[in-house]
Design brief:
With about 160 residues, this protein is mostly loops. The protein is built from 1 helix and 2 strands; from the N terminus they run βαβ.
């Protein structure tokens, strides 16, 4: 499968997120569920790259490994979601509800969590470099091993 076209007209690579109809979101999630259950043998990993998913309802969803890079998830419901190793680079999660979500080892570099609710979320070993967490509720967050700083040269 080829990636969707249409970004060529944005010379700086800053294409706006695109709305995805609810039926297509459900289809992508069903294919993702198949991918998880078959350990990658069937279905395909969810790809919501640059998707406009404002107010989306993913509460309790198994979104392990899903691609939400540069997606707009403003006000999204992601409580108890499994986002283990998901790609949330440069995603907009402002005002999102992420209570008790599993974001272990997720890549959230440059993501915006401004005023998001992260109470009790698991961020262990996640990459949060350059993420914006202003006014986010981080009470009870597990963040052992989370990266908040630029990665330096490998030590020998």
């Amino acid at each position: 499968d080829m990636p969707p076209e249409g970004d060529e007209d944005a010379p700086d690579g800053s294409a706006e997120p695109k709305a995805i109809p609810a039926a297509e979101v459900e289809q992508i999630l069903n294919r993702h569920r198949e991918w998880i259950e078959s350990k990658g043998g069937e279905g395909e990993k969810a790809n919501f790259h640059r998707a406009f998913l404002q107010d989306a309802y993913f509460q309790g969803g198994d979104l392990r490994g899903a691609n939400f890079s540069e997606a707009s998830l403003h006000l999204a419901e992601l409580q108890n979601a499994n986002l283990y190793r998901a790609d949330l680079t440069h995603a907009n999660l402002q005002h999102a509800s992420l209570q008790k979500s599993n974001m272990r080892e997720a890549n959230m570099e440059g993501a915006h969590f401004i005023q998001a609710n992260l109470q009790g979320a698991d961020l262990r070993d996640a990459d949060l470099f350059e993420s914006r967490l202003q006014w986010a509720d981080i009470e009870g967050v597990y963040c052992k091993g989370a990266n908040l700083f630029p990665r330096g040269p490998a030590s020998s």
